[in-house]
Amino acid sequence: MSSRTSPKSQPITIRRAVAGDAKRLTRLVRGSGAYEGVYAAAVAGYRVGPDYIEAHRVHVAVGSDGHGGRILGFYSLVLAPPELDLLFVADEAQGRGIGRLLVAHMQSEARAAGLDRVMVVSHLPAEDFYHRVGAVRIGTALANPPAVPWDRPEFEFRIPAE
What InterPro entries does the database record attribute to this sequence (predicted)? Predict the structure, then answer.
């Protein structure tokens, strides 16, 4: 577990997710404002289950401020092949640097696992975010109807050795 402070000085703890977090993570994904309207179908039936949490490196950002330890965001790092599978920040917590903290933590985890690159297929509204946190555009994931009827940008995080 690690504690960090977001740029707006709100204490944030990043810890490994546990099976008991599964329902909260699923609600965070399904309730994301980034997936409203045309994008809603992509997450309508999505589930982050205890089995998923056990199989991958899922970490949560927990607010230590007035949020009472509520999960403010999370990410999932898949090791083989190396991919940032999920990254979500609660709508009401966006703009506080939590996404940036989660990416930095993911990069540290990837480095510790011996990875030198981590791919991410971005949701279209998140493309600018990935640019801002240092990901490099490497291509395009083509649409896969009916689940995802639009092309998506592919990015790569290069993980330098320490």
Answer: Acetyltransferase_Butenolide, Acyl_CoA_acyltransferase, GNAT_dom
Contacts 24+ apart (CB under 8 A), 89-96: 89/61, 90/28, 91/31, 91/32, 91/33, 93/63, 96/6, 96/7, 96/8, 96/10, 96/72
What pLDDT, in 10s, does the model give residues 134-159?
999 999 999 988 878 899 999 999 99
Question: Would you say 58 and 7 are in contact if contact means Cβ atoms under 8 Å apart?
Answer: no
Distance between CA atoms of residues 21 and 160, nearest Å = 31
Which pTM was predicted? 0.90
Q: Could you tell me the CA-to-CA distances from 108 to 41, 67, 69, 78 in Å, in that order?
A: 32, 26, 23, 14
DSSP string, 77-105: EETTTTEEEEEEE-GGGTTSSHHHHHHHH
The amino acid occupying position 43 is: V
Q: Cβ contacts of residue 126 below 8 Å, gap of 6+? A: 34, 87
CA nearest neighbour of 152 among 160, 140, 161: 140
DSSP annotation of 122: -
